[in-house]
Structure formats: C-alpha cells, structure tokens
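2024-03-11 09:14:02 INFO receiving multi-entity request
2024-03-11 09:14:02 INFO entity count = two
2024-03-11 09:14:03 INFO echoing inputs for audit
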Amino acid sequence: MIITVVAFKGGVGKSTTALHLATYLQNQADTLLIDGDLNRSALDWSNRGSLPFKVADEQQGVSLASLYEHIVIDTPARPDTDELKTLAKGCDLLVIPTTPDAIALAATLQMVESLKSYKAEYKILLTIVPPHPNKAGEEARTTLLNADLPVFKSGIRRLAVFQRAALEGVPVNAVKDAYSQIAWRCYAEVGKEILL
Amino acid sequence: MNNKKKTSRFDDLIDAARSRQQRDQPQLTSDTPTSATKSTDPAYTRTTIYLPKQLHRQLKAAAVAQERQMSDIVAELVEQWLRKMGSEDTGK
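2024-03-11 09:21:47 INFO inference complete, emitting structure
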C-alpha cells in the first residue's frame, strides 16, 4: 500500500503522522518511509535515534521501493502542483493531517479542492487536538463532516510525549512516559482504519 | 538536478512503487482463470472437427446468446447421441 501524507500548512503533524503510520504498518509488513520533505525532518528523526522501519529520501526510494510492501511518503508543506498531482494519482490513500483551528482547516479545504480534479482517495486526520473541556476537536470534526468530507474516526491528541519522541528519535510507543501508550493508540486506531 | 525533464521529483518513486504492486497483482489474476479452463484440465482433451461454415456460425451465435461454451453444447449433444445409440443397441 502506498500512503502519502500531505498538507498545505506546516506544523500540523505531517512528519509525526507519517512516522507513526509507518511504525504501525511495519508491524504488518516491511515498510519504507520516504522523507520527501526537503527539511528532511523524518530522516533527522531517524538519525537521532532508532526507528523500527527503513527511512530514505525520494531518490534512494526509487531503488528501494520494490523491496517493501508498504510505502509511506512524507511531503513538504505546500507541495507544488506537479508534485501533488503525481502523488495523488500514484498513491492508494492521501492522509491530510490538520489541526482543529480555522487557519489549518481553511488550508485543508483548499487542499481538498485541488485534489478533486485528480479523483484521489483521501482522508482527513485531526491532529494536535486539545484536551477536554476544549471543544475545538469536536467542532472541527463537525465542520468537516457537514462538508461531506472523509475524516478519520480517531483524532490525534495534543500530548507532550510526541515532542519527547521526536527529541529521542523514536516513535511514541518507545518512549518511557505515562502517556506514551495513549498517544500510540491514537495512531494505532488510524492505522486500523486505513487497513480496513 | 535532472528535475527539468520530469514533472516532479516523486515521479520515479511512484513508478517504482507502482511497478511492485503491479508485479504482485497480475500473478494472482492470471492464476485463477487458467486453473478454471478446460485447456489445462487433465479431465479434458482437445479435438478438431469439421462443421459446415453456416452450422458453425449458428452454433457460435447460439452459444453466445445462451452464454454457454461451444464445447459444453457439443459435449451434451454427443452424450445424448451416445445414450441413444446405447439404448438402440440394447433394444435390438
């Protein structure tokens, strides 16, 4: 399966999402994470610590692709039109992470609009969702569902453990933290939904 | 570097990933029909018969109309004929 993580806006958890989906998929079959973001944040993450799957840039990925069952592609914020077109047409699913704020939601709607012409399969993932009693997450979900857009049932909670994981260069489930399993379950649920 | 001739830097990657998927799939699809055809079934043998052109055309059209194979129709008719022969033999 080829999954691409895309968003017009930066800082919405794109690399975190790509990395944890790859972690989940690696449990099923060999998975390759392509760090297509020119910041190379995923490659940086993997250089810092140890990730349970292979990470490569899009050029190394060409020769590696045939060896892996699943490929997760992380992309730069604001991918150019040609990049988006190639990825939208070539992958099985686009995952669009968005934070539940007005600016990110607007960027997401813009992304969805530009995907329409490619007839791509996509699903929106709410990320960095603030905890109860803040209702931002629910409100954003309602907004998206009212617009008839596909949204993952599971959202990703705003948890400090994600930052610790990035710092240590491991996925959240490998961090020793009271919240690591709660954080991991967020992505495990998303992974399950993808493979359904 | 060589980005100019490609439309995007992900083209080669997607091609490589796709070709793997396509390599996995055709094997599955081409396996299933061959195992179901008479040409590979050891219980069947292939034979050649000559039919008048018009009769052959009618048979073919009728087979298509009924969505049956000409082989099945001919086999059924031959069976009928053989049975008839058999009952005539015992009747004598």
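2024-03-11 09:21:48 INFO post-check: Residues 2-195 of chain A form a domain with the Rossmann fold fold (CATH 3.40.50.300).
2024-03-11 09:21:48 INFO post-check: Chain A touches chain B at residues 2, 34, 36, 58-59, 61-63, 65-66, 68, 71, 73, 80, 82-83, 85-87, 89-91 (CB under 8 Å).
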